[in-house]
Specification:
Strand order of the largest sheet: 4-3-5-7-6
Structural class: alpha+beta
Number of domains: 3
Strand content: 5-15%
Number of strands: 15
Distance between the termini: 94 Å
Amino acid sequence: MGAPEAARGASEMTRRARDLRFVAASAAALAILTSVPYVAAHALDDRDSRFLDTLVFEQDFNSYCAFVRQSAEGAWLFDNPFTPEPHRASFLNLEFLVTGRLAGLLRLEAGRALQIQRVAAGTLLAFGLWGLGAQLIAAPTLRRVFFIAALTGGGFGWMRVLPGLGRAVERMRPVDLYAGVHPFFWLFLHPHFVAGEAMVVLALGALLAGERTGRGAFHLAAGTLAALVGLVRPYDMLFLQVTAVLYAAAVALQERRAEKAPAARRLLPAVMPLPVLAYSLWLFRFDPVFRWWGRQGVNGPPPARSMLAGLGLLPVLLAAALVASRRRPWTRGETLMACAVATSLLLVYSYPWLSFSFQFVTTLVVPALLLALSRLEVDLLPLGATRRGAVLAALVLAMNALSSAALWAIKLAEAQGAEFRIAGSERAALAWLRAHSRARDVVLAGRRTSNRVPRYTDDAVVAGYEFSTVRFAEKLERVQRFFRASTADAFRERLLAQLGVRYVVHGSEERQLGGYDPARSAFLGEAFRDGDMAVYEVRLGSDALVGEDDHAGVEGQRAGDEEAAAAVSRGKRARPADQAVVAPQAHGDRPRLLGGEEPVGYRIGDHVPVAGSLGPGIPLDHSGLRGPEHLREVGVQPAVEGGLAQIAVPPSVPEPPCVGGLDGMEGRDAGHGAATRRVLQPVDQGQLRAERRRHGTHDTGAQQRSHAQQAERDRVQPLGDR
């Protein structure tokens, strides 16, 4: 090697070392800056309240913490504690698994572990952005402009404070201050977003490196990263898959020839994640419990004006770049970024075909900014060489960062308030539950408290998270009704029994739902109190599950069914000693079937509220039982200790809303004009003959079936607040 080559090599090494120091220093500065509000909030911790380690989307953050805590305690598969239905644990998220193991190793609370993950993933994102930018932008100065703009940029949300413009901007509702559009939002507020997007940036960089060098190892790395990000955030996996397909098609059109080996390598990020995609589709579309995450996770895009205002200078810059460089040829890197931008926009505005379409907005800013600066590099280089150009670039970067500065100031102020804090009395109640309850004991509380319970305990809740609680809205309505003073105790007892509730939490949130005082209830006993926060243990009698209007015959048939019952019951708690269940009935008490009805049997375990079915077999219903799908769901099967249950189900009953077994037979009674419960009772032959005499019939066949069904309809009673 000659002297010139050695000098160039040394200069290149010096430049790379300088770049690495710049990236590391920038990542450290951002980590410190974004951690200041969290440190300030924790500085206010005392016995009266503690900071929750989040400044946005508390419900989401608590759900992450619940799964991280499960991993910290040794779980490999995750249980959904935000719904009371028993179900099998499933693999849910690689990020939660790894962060939980870190929390267990360092003995950290889940929220603290997620904050460490936020900083680590932010650092990974910073290095990934620099590596991706270096492959498209040759000029070191412009590369730094891209890096700073990507990590600190925002939209026009900051303009809400300007006199004269504030109201107009407010009406536009820019998304940059409340949604994860820009990387600074992820770095600052959302560990889950920053983990996924760091892997997306690395995958794009690996794919582009493979295209530049022709080395298949980079394509393989891109496919592996795409599959891994699918185990963290499936939205990002789908984005990478579609981007890879579009890119392969675009390159084929550019070259006008199809080489099989290079084309196959380009498709690796689309093909390798297919098993993960299939698993995600099964979990969020067909799993009895986790499928409700997909059904209830509706997140459509905002209006175009809100999106444009939230993107700030970026749309203007991108439009200018595409116009100014329209006659220039496209590099492979620019083609890839253009495909990424097109994919992101296509997916963001795919609603309602994809109900969660706005989740893809996190994938838009980085490729759009990189595409714009890469296409403008030739035009900007002369400007950057002048002092005036440097000042102009600094001003543009400062304006681009104003929304991020405003967001930081807003969150610093919120960190001093009470919105993201948990009261000491509530924390004490949750600590008591963790120490005294068993795994998946069901807790009934208000919406906010229920969302926090799984973060700190092994308990399940009735209505804890709008995305993952089975039929969240309907369960939440029942919880709110439970705490109203006007609600009858009969309703409360049925709700507690049929959902298997073990504890009721009563604090300031629950008091705001109504004037109900649990201390006066005969079926609730105070087990813990700290100030205004109390925990009551449910103490139901033996007739709680089947009352005068809720009776159904049950026959215990343990022989040959224990293995199947155990499979369904796996992971459920044992019955509380003081909470009785319905004893199995003798064969002679089995309900006789009305005309036209057929018996329905399924294997169940103790305290499993299940819906009836018009067909035989074990239904795949909202209680987490497995088996063939059925077209209609009617009736409520009371819980038993185990075996085979058999109930009479009239086929003429329409499908009702089923909420965890309670009010599953509710409808609208034309005579009463009020909510009603259809009662399943054993049919007494004397009563049936009396019904026939009352209607003047004594024949069999069609008339007998008609009047028997009328007799059953006569047992429909107004539900109300009895």
